[in-house]
Amino acid sequence: MDDVDRAILSVLAREGRISNADLAARVGLSPSPCLRRVNRLEQSGVIRGYRAVIDPAAVGRSLRVFIGVRLARHARADVAAFEQAVTELSEVVNAHHITGNFDYLLQVEVADLPAYEHFHAHQLAELPNVATVSSYVTMKTLRRGNA
Question: What is the SS3 assignment for 3?
Answer without folding.
Answer: helix
